[in-house]
Structures are given as structure tokens and as C-alpha cells.
Amino acid sequence: MHNAQRKPLSLMVAFFVAGTAISTSQSIYAQQETEEVLEEVIVTGARGRPRTVADSPVPIDVFDSETIESVSFTDTNDVLQTLVPSYNVSRNPISDGATFIRPASLRGMPTDKTLVLVNSKRRHRSALVSIGGSGTQGPDVATIPTIALKNVEVLRDGAAAQYGSDAIAGVINFILKDSADGGSFSVDTGQYTESDGQQYTIQGNIGFPLGANGFINLSGEISQADSTTRAEQYCESWFCLDTQNPVYNPAAGYTTYTEDPTFMAAVAAMGDVVQPWGQPNTEAQRFFVNAELPLANGRELYAFGNYSSSEADGPFFYRYPGNGTIEDLREADGSIYSPLEKFPGGFTPRFFGNVTDYSLVGGYRGELNNGLMYDLSARTGENKVEYTLKQTVNPSLGPDSPTSFRPGDLINEEMQLQADFSLELDAGVAAPAILAFGVSYMDEAYKIVQGELDSYQAGPYAVSDPWGFCNDDGSPTANGIAVIGSGSSLNCADDDDAAFTVVGVGSNGFPGYSPEFSDNYERDSYAVYGDISADVTDALFMQAALRYEDYSDFGGELVGKVAGRLSLTDTFALRGSLGTGFRAPTPGQQGTTNVSTRLPNGLPVATGLFPPSGPVARALGATDLKPETSTNYTLGFTSEIGELSLTADMYRIDVDDRVYSVSTRDVSTNPSSGSAYDNYLALSGAGVAGAETIGGVFYFTNAFDTRTQGVDIVATLPVFWDSGASTTFTASMNYNKSEFASDPSAFLNAEDQYDFENFDPTWRGVMSARHSIGDLTLMARANLYGPYDNFNSGQVQEFDPTALIDLEAQYQINDLLRITFGGRNVFDQYPEKDAIGDYCCGRLYSSGTAVSWQGAYYYARLNASF
């Protein structure tokens, strides 16, 4: 399988190189000798002094504002995915908070193993801890509007020794615009060819002078996007609403509903499908400010910050009659109540998230007489997620249940003080060495805010026979005799009588945070680091770094890194690095709790995630989390062949004690169900309300060791034609494979083990051509996704490679205005549909894949620059 997966990558690279050679033979470089080459200068990874991209000992991509603007997306996550093949983000419907804050990955590592910086200062994390998988808790990159960006630097190499915990896979540094005059404005709108997903984005940026030589630069964005639906009507073996679907089985026991015109009319009123799969409704307002004020003697004050507010809503799983939530209940007067009285066609809960994010960074920097440069800074940041759940019930409250709930909030807070210094040293080598060093102190807090009472309280129907109608021997009590006498159909001798029905506790779909699971998790840490780099000879550059970090909850760790670049000729150089890393599990990962509907065995059941150090997970065998450690290797080359720029970098990332969620453990009240019954007893013994209605449990643990290996290839070729036109060809490709380096079977079942190693495409590429002639610019881009597999109950579905083609045309109307028309995935390609029955409930495509499954999208954009 491995050879088959590598072959498409080599073919694509060969195709690109051959294509660029042909293009060169048909053009001339009329401006080659007269044009000056402006080398891109980077600050990421340099620590102390900027270097050029070509001179960097580790792979770094730099994307300027023009390149960022050329991508049709306005969500910064999608922009990065378009530009960096090893950066992937998926659309996650029906995934709790991941519907609103999408986790991403770099080089196969989740978000929390990539450090995010803004103006070279650490960006605070979001409040969302993704349930399942690695429990990712990283910054919400979407809060950074693209129009605020001067450039983005993506360091594709471990850098924990330079920047601290989290920089295992790499570093992304967002550099804000810093102009003191002028500005820009854009309006972007479009929709999918399925006639849904209409969206618009309005962005603006403007600069003002501050004092004689300073600036204050302001950026803002307002956006709105409607939902999409890529689904079929709900039809499964346990309940079906589409009598024309081959799955439909009249003998399954739900014919009374499909033949009930009142019920089916209510279903029809819910829309084309009762359970949509697609992107959520979203709207957002985001603002950034960047300012700098020079003082005397080369000193300066600086500050930057943001405020972002966004709202989104999406559906949960459809609740059908008899699913354990919509059940007949016997009221205190002996009559029957059903939630169908509130929702005649069943119901699909809708989950709303309001995300508020703000940050403020301030600093003072300058240079002393002895050449010591200093940068003293302080930052604070907060991300808050406020949840609302509508169109659902707390089943245990019966007829008294409201249909809208506030299940609680999540808040992540950070404060950091930092001092960075650098100094040139005469080390007797080809050029002065740069010594960089510094210290930092960081305080973190993760808060789970209690929900409103109705969202978590256990109502009367959380227990059997809440009104005391029946005796243990099946005879009615005095209360039972009284209601029977008033005409009730109560039958205490029938175990299926509605008097004995037990239903779930809390707002169904996402129970609120109760006092037992609402808490404040805090810690602090400090770090010291040193970094030295120098051109040892005219051909050899070397860099070494050490960093010691100490966390109040995990203790200390020393990590290091060495990197170098050797120029063998004027056009060819080798580069490589070796580094160790350390990532302390976040307070959120240690404290998060969640009860929601998931699909551990292919059908929806209520599952609970509990803190590994809490009494519930402890009763299930969990232990306290400990830090992850890593070793990172890279080896590559850079080459300039005429106008062709080519880099290739191989890497290996070994992570020990990787934090991951265990496969969902079944829970059952049936004493004959073995370990599932033991899990029920553990939940009940730990005091979990509604333990009888929970079907599965899981928690985070240090589950296993992993090894991730791959290669990044980046090629760029500008071609200048004798007509005055120019064409820039670019190709970026990533091959990435993760595998276990220890036995995970104690924590993961067969399906989760298989999916960990095979679910994501093994390779991905982006190839583009951008042609400019006069005021017209044409762009074509191919987004390439390699094969990937899915596993279900011993069956494997292999998904073929996918190519999504984007086309765009820009026209510069005058010095002020530019208009753009374009399309993404213009050939309306979709990944293959589910063929092995792994995706239930109307889902057609793998919603967790990085391959887009929304279809073709067309847009128009108007830009104004002044």
C-alpha cells in the first residue's frame, strides 16, 4: 500500500518539473538581468535577527498580503489550507463545539501541537476542547481577519526549544499590517451551485500616523454565511422516514409513524431532511488594531489586540419516537404524556454557540549602548464560548420541560509577561554570532461555567415509577388504585407500562454543566531560553537553542534544538535540524466534561466524556495526564535552477505519551452485559445523574507513542513573456504518514486504530498558475488529495484521489478598483459516498475528512485600495 501511495506523488512532481521546463523553453526572461530580486525576510525561527527565507536552516513558507488576498476564502483556516498542503482543516457538522471552532492540523499533528503567534507573540487558546481524538485545544485562527495580515510565516519544523510548549509540529506567525496611511476595502459574496450556503464578507483596513513616525493600523471584518445541506432523508434500520429507501423495513415496528399523516405532515414541515449535514449558519464581527510609537534613542512602544464576536448554529441528531428520548411517560394523574405533544414529528436539537475573543499585547523595546537589544512585553487574552440549545427537551422533566436551554459557558484565560534580549558577539567566525535569550511567566485558567438549572437537573422521570403507583409484586399502591379508578390505563403487572419508563437527564443533546462538573482549573509556568546562531563560515550557518519550562501542575522539562544550513554551491544547499519538544496538557484537557450524542457503534447514543483526574473517570480506570514529549528530525535541500526555486524537506516527529481519548466504553444497565454493566455501576457509584440513560463513556489518557514521517516539496517558477505578460507557476506537495510506535490496543478498538493510521489522505498537493497581462490576471489552482481509507466492522472502503479545480479572473478597473470573479471546485467534484454503512442518519459523505464535500462555489469580489 505504501508504494502505491507514493507513486502519485512522484508522478505529480515529475509532471510539474517537466511542465515548467517546457514553459521556460517557450518564453524569454526579458527582465531577468534588469529586475532586482527582493528577498523575503523572516523573523520566525530566527530569534534575534531576521534572515531571508533562502538562508533559513529550516523550512519556512512566507505568504504576503497579495498572496493571502488571492485566495477566495476569507476564513483564515481555509486560506492556510489552500496555501500549505500540510495544513488541514475539516468541516465538522454535528460535532458539538467543533462546529463553531474548527480544529486544524499541521504535518499530521493536531492544532495543539502547532504554536500560533501574532507579531511573534503567543496567541491565546480557544475555550473549546475537542471531544474525541487528541482533545485538541488550540487558538482559534478564524478570529484573525485576513485583511489585517501583512504576511504569514509558517515554520514547518519543531521549535519548542525556541518558542515553548506546543511548537512540536511547527509555528505559524501572523504579522499584522503596519502602514501609517492608505487603506483597502473589499466586498465578497457567493454561493454554492446547490443554491445554498450564500455568504458575504465585508473587510476594511486603514492606517493613520501616530506621532511623527508611528502608526496605528485598524482592520475589521463582517461576515455571514448560510447553512448548506448535503444529506438524504433519515432512514436507518431502526427508524426510517423514507418509505422509498431500500433500507425501509415495514416490519421494524415504526409503520404506525410512517402511516400516520399527522406525524408525516409534521416531518415534512421540518424541511427536505430532518437531519441536515453541511456547514452551519454563521455570522461574525472581527477587529484588529496594531500600533507603534517611536521614542527617542531608538526606543519604541508598541501594542496590538483584537476583539471578535461570532455566532453559529447547527443541528444535532434527529430524535425519533421510541429512541429513548421520545417515550410515553405516565403523569401524576395517571395519564400519558409524550414529547410528541411538543414536537409532533420528532425533533432535531439545534446547537448555538456565541464565541467572544479578545486580546491585548503591549511592549517596550530598544537597544542599549552596548548593543543589547531588549523587548519587554505583556499580553492578556480570553476566549469564551456561550452555548444555547433549542428545539429540544430535558426528558426527565416530562411535560414541564422547556424547549430552550443555556447549558453553560467555557472560558479560557491567559496572561503572560515576557522579556527577550539579543546581542551580537564576536565569536571569531565568518560573521558575528547572535545570542538571544529571555524569560517568561504565564498564568492560565480554564473555567467551566454552570448551566441553568433546567439544563442539568434530574426531573421526576429520571427514575422508574416516580409517582409510586406500583408495588414490587406488580400490584398497584393506593396511588395506583386511585388513578385506575379515575380511568387511567395503568397496569403495574406490565413491565412495559409507561409508569416504569426512565428517560435521560438534562437538555437532550448537550446536558448542562452541573455544579459537580463546573470548576476553575488554573496553573502557572515560567520559562528561560537561550539561542545562539552564526555563519560559522561563508557556507555554513549553525543554530542551537535550549529552553527550560516549569509548570505548576507538571514540573519542569529541558528541551533543545540544533539546526544548520550548508551551501554546497551558489544554487544548492543542504539543511536540517534535530530537536526535542515538550507539551504540557492544557487545563482544559484536564478538566473538560461533556455528555452528548455520538456514534460509537454506528447508531446514536448518549456518551459521556469525563476529566481523567475526576471520580467518574477514576472509577473507569483513568489516571492523571502527564506531558507529551517529542523528538523532531528534518533533512532537506534548497535549490535555485535558473528562475526555478525548489525545496524538499523530509521530517520525522516522534511523540511519546501522546494524549488521546480512549475508544468509547459501552454502558448498560443489563447485569448480563459484562464490562458494560460494570461501567454503569461505576457511573452510578460516582453519582452521575441519569447514568441509566448513558450508553458510552470515555476519557483522555496518555495512550500511546506515535511516529509521523513525511516530506514537503515546494517549487516556484516565474516566467516573463516577450509580450510583457508574466506567469508564476507554484507547486507545493506534502506526503505524511502517522503510525503507532507502541501498542495502543489497551486504549483503542480496532476501528479507531485503523482510522488513526489511514483515515487522512496520505498525500496532498496544491498546484497553481497565475498569469498577468496588463490589467488582467488569470489564476488556475488544483487542490489534490491522495487516497485514504475508512474502516467499519472489519470492512475497509478505499477512497480514490480527488482533484478540485479553482479558477479566477481579476481585472484592475483603475488605480482604485479591482473586480474578481471566480469559482472553487468548478467541476463540482465530491468525494465518494459511504459504501460500507459507517455514516448513519442521512449522512452521505465523510464529514470529518479534509476533502471538501460541499460542491462547486462561485463568487464575486470588489476591492478598493487608496
From TrEMBL:
Domain TonB-dependent receptor-like beta-barrel: 302-826
Residues of the TonB-dependent receptor plug domain: 53-171
Membrane topology listed for this record: Multi-pass membrane protein
Subcellular location field: Cell outer membrane
Broad class of where this protein is predominantly found: membrane
Pfam families in UniProt: Plug (PF07715), TonB_dep_Rec_b-barrel (PF00593)
Annotated InterPro entries: Beta-barrel_TonB, Beta-barrel_TonB_sf, Plug_dom, Plug_dom_sf, TonB-dep_rcpt-like
Keyword Cytoplasm annotated: no
Swiss-Prot/TrEMBL keywords: Cell outer membrane, Membrane, TonB box, Transmembrane, Transport
Keyword Chloroplast listed: no
GO cellular component: cell outer membrane
Name of the molecule in the record: TonB-dependent receptor plug domain-containing protein
